[in-house]
Design goal:
about 190 residues, Rna Polymerase Sigma Factor, Chain: A, 2 domains
Length: about 190
Amino acid sequence: MDPLASLTDEELAARTQAGNHEAFGILVERYEKKLSYYGKRFLRVEEDIQDIVQEIFISAYRNIQSFDTKQRFSPWIYRIAHNSFVNELRRKSRRPFFAIDFDSLVAHPHAAETSEQHTHEREMKEMVEKGLEALPPNYREILLLYYQEELSYKEIADVLQVPMGTVGVRMRRAKEALTKAYQKMNQRYEF
């Protein structure tokens, strides 16, 4: 096993700043799938997403010296990703489209799964996805960053470049909107 693989993201960034290209390669491995998944919130075409993800890593490498290794790496790279995907949306159209998979919002039991639990979780995931489709993009994104990427309110504020109070307001409104979407779905399925 590569000894660099056991280092934190911040330690890898520090090594990259010192000229270790292999350390940056490990960061790419750690974040490539996550950033691709994040990109699906903005773009539909897989090739476009992969192109932008590569641009994100190029930008991150070029600007790695500006990263403060005393801070967390993930909000820094997600800020670059957010800007890159938003810029691509602006370039392509005036109306962005977000498609979010929020399976992380559903609590998963730690006990051994039964077939019934698996079916229930799949149904819950589908329900969450349908509910989120009804939300405005800024609410979807904030839920993704908080629940899936596990960023703090301060880190989300840094990524979105909004005040921390705005993050709290959007989070509350997003949860309220999601609750209303679920209520509408439940009304449709009542017999």
